[in-house]
Amino acid sequence: MTLSLTHSSTQGGSSVGTRNFLNVMSLGRLCNNQEVEVMMMMRMQRGIAGYASRSTTDSFLPSSQTSKKGNSRLCVSVRDYYCYMLQTRPGIFNPILCGARLLQQWGVDMYIKIESCRLKWYRKNQTKICADLYKGVVDAITSGETRASAVGVRIVLPGTYPGGDRDMKWRHMDAMAIVHTYGKPDIFLTMTCNPNWEEITNELFPGQTAQDRPDLVARVFHGKLEAMKEMLFKKNILGVVANVYVVEFQKRGLPHAHFLLIMDFAYKLVVLEQYDRLISAELPDKQKYPELHALVVKHMMHGPCGALNPKNVCMQQNECKCRYPRPFNENTAQGKNSYPVYRRRDNGRQAKVRGKMLDNRWVVPYNPYLLRMFNCHINVEVCSSIKAVKYLYKYIYKGHDRASFSIDQPDADGNIDEIKRYVDARWVTPPKAMWRIFGFPLCANDPPAYSCLFISQICTGWHSMSKLT
């Protein structure tokens, strides 16, 4: 029998959560195993444990081991092993992929296990990541303090850890460096995963839905995202651009990506007629463009909300937080420190959406070509008129969702634990767990920004057991 225990211990004045597995052996002995042991995940859920019996062989070792050629790699990482477990192989039944909600739980738990191992390494190797370069030491010496232990210990989560606070701040600064060189962004594009893509539905086992296969959702969305990047950055369908993109995960699971595109001067949107050629906020003619009309009705109609549906999720204080329905407008107008007011003509076109008849006032701005190409929700907005450029970049670099939050204050000795602050109350969904297990990137920018580190003269190295004088 296996029990999964989570407890908090105190290490260096900070509370650390540890996941342990307690094995009750046949003779009554207790065997304690922490999460670093790979095979414990197979004992956690007996519903999928049968697959472990044939996974302990060298069949999942790197090809260099089985072929006796290549490099000298002797083992695989935990992440590599779980990637191996998630593969579909002809003629081999994989019970993990048939677990439905068990697969969701398994994916989240394995990702947390991988991340716990990485964070534990950072915690135990603070000297290797130069966490002792703490500027406050000089202030302590100036004030007459001689005890190094009283200066305060900062457990640092470095910027090399993807998704951490420092990483997001550094990426935000890189993005602002791109703005300094190429100018303000012109296009704000949001692409959301469609769980009904054929690439997903065709690979589902009988009786499964997209929610039962977060691994498939993550892989297909990654493929679509790569196709979008090729269209925008290599084929230049919107012109030559500098770009920043970030992948996020909704609390209900579906991933989406935010793009900020800075166009080359020759492709800048300078007149309102260019807005209308690039972006539409109207229902297309059903007779001339039946396929596009169906896609707009399926993916690009907001709500209904307001008086038609007061309980919709977008309603806050009896108003739609997205400001729908928008007013009719015969011509596109430039916004004042906001998005443009797109053309929404009162031409009588309507469509039935979730039991209500909606018109052009409910259409989310879109690009017809991209909508037909990717068959998913793709919101395209002109953002060159927004003065608060930092707001746009802070929005996409706001970090991961949290179930709750608290304000952490240093303790009596000034100790600050950045790793604990990162771990506490994160909201991890199964698609995000699968995305990280497969090693897909969360964000990128092009052209890349090179960081020139400035070392202040007042930064001083110190050790907690040393004297400051």
Q: Which sequence of strands runs across the widest sheet?
A: 12-5-7-6-14
| Number of separate strands | 14
What is the rounded Rg?
26 Å
Portion of residues in helices?
Answer: 25-40%
Number of domains: 2
Describe the largest sheet: 5 strands, antiparallel
Low-confidence spans: 1-17, 21-33, 35-40, 42-47, 49-59, 457-464
The string of secondary-structure elements, in order, is: EEEHHHHHEHEHHEEHHEEEEHEHEHHE
General form: globular
Distance between the termini: 56 Å
- The proportion of strand residues reads 15-25%
* Alpha plus pi helix count: 14
Structural class of the helix and strand makeup?
alpha+beta
Q: Mean of residue pLDDT? A: 79
3D architecture notes:
There is one protein chain. The strands form five sheets. Strands 12-5-7-6-14 form a five-stranded antiparallel beta sheet, with helices on both faces. It has helices at 40-44, 63-66, 78-85, 101-124, 136-142, 165-182, 198-201, 214-234, 272-278, 290-299, 368-374, 389-396, 418-423, 430-437, and strands at 2-11, 14-24, 30-34, 154-155, 187-192, 241-249, 255-263, 315-316, 319-320, 351-353, 356-358, 378-382, 416-417, 443-446. The chain is of the alpha+beta class. The relative contact order is 0.15. The radius of gyration is 26 Å and the shape is globular. It has two domains: 2-115, no CATH class; 165-396, no CATH class. It contains 14 helices and 14 strands. Helix content is 29%, strand content 16%.
